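task queued by scheduler; priority normal; single chain, no ligands, no partner chains; default sampling; output format set to structure tokens
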Amino acid sequence: MEEDKNYINLIRGDLTKASQAHNGMPDSVGMMNIKTANQTILEASLLPTPRALWDSFWYEGELSCLFADSNVGKSILAVQIADRIARTDNVLYLDFELSEKQFQLRYTNEHGELYTFPDKLYRVSIDCNQLLDANFEEAIIGGIEQMAVQTDCKIFIIDNLTYLCCAMEKGDAAGRLMIQLNNLKKRYALSILVLAHTPKRSLDCPITSNDLAGSKRLYNFFDSVFTIGKSAQDGGLRYVKQLKVRYGTFSHDADNVIVYEIDKVDAFLQFVFRGYSTEKEHLKKLGDNESSQRDCQILQLSQSGKSVREIASQVNCGKSTVNRIIQRSKESKNAGVPSVP
């Protein structure tokens, strides 16, 4: 039945191509390929549906990003994801964070017993001697491409973006790097998960795309983005939240984050599932004094002419919070002014 359906779609595709040619529309102009919308979805329908590599957060063929503050557990979760995928697929884990000894200690229990990873998980480190005379970023991208060609591995995890692009705080440099990774993804049908940092942030505000370190434009290059938050109510808990989705469903937003506890089980340091909750439950509750100081700062910045977006970024809280405080102040002032008869 499926073969018949595909055969029919192939015939429809040929007819659509013929119609495009009959209408005088070329199939390409320079580097631009032109297809009708119908031709596009017909051809795509013949391709396999991407597999979920990890829950609804990362799918085959995606350039995805996992970001979080330092010491929250990005690498721990990334290795856990790699460990699971490597039970069926080859995975190249580019580890630019830990030394081999640090990696070993992380996966050794109190009795000195080592964790056994799947044989299809490969850890990649850098030979620094070969970087001495090379352009750093070009050498890294070139190395990833060579590995894709020589190993035929399709799944890469890069830990982390800061190491890849020393100048990532400059949006142009980071943007060029992301374009190169996207090109590799498309050319070799790769699935790439990139780890990234956030600048130091307050635990009283929800995590947003603005918390991704570097240029906000970085966010736009990724197919999917998810993040790890540290619970302000219990320092041992972490929550994972989706921020951007293209495949699958947007099922773990602020109203349904996944809660984990970091624990070492049988020599494997991992995120242990603890349930679901709202992000709000894990945010720091401002005391009256802290809240008052923040509100005053917001109002002062507003009076100085700052936009809501600029204030939210400077005070490190959501735009809706800034709007609410400004609006409440206006209403309070209006209530104190007697109406004119």
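post-processing summary
- The first strand starts at residue 28 and ends at 29.
- The mean pLDDT is 86.
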